[in-house]
Design brief:
79% of the residues lie in helices and 0% in strands. By secondary structure, the protein is mainly alpha-helical. α2 crosses α5 and α4 packs antiparallel against α5.
């Protein structure tokens, strides 16, 4: 553990963990998030018979994590996952503006 890690606030730790997950751990384990979300978008759009924008997929996954927390299933990793999903939502939403 380095000096920077010792003096990190809880919010710094959560943000750092979310960044690590979406940029390294989950990416290495499951591949590019955008590719997985494209598959989910198509599956959900077919199931729901509606159009979905790509940014809405991680946004809905973040809502799932929030629902779990609200219903008494609080786990720190749900917070971290939710932040990761929202970071990807922001990225995709900004790409869709181009």
């Amino acid at each position: 553990m380095n000096d920077q890690e010792i003096f990190m606030t809880q919010r710094d730790k959560v943000l750092a963990e979310a960044g690590k997950l979406i940029n390294k751990d989950r990416h290495n384990e499951y591949g590019e998030a955008h590719d997985n979300f494209k598959i989910l978008r198509k599956n959900w759009a077919d199931l729901l018979q509606c159009d979905l924008q790509l940014w809405q997929v991680p946004f809905m996954l973040a809502q799932m994590k929030i629902a779990r927390i609200v219903n008494g299933g609080y786990k720190e990793d749900s917070i971290v996952d939710c932040i990761g999903y929202l970071a990807i939502t922001s990225e995709l939403k900004n790409i869709s503006k181009l």
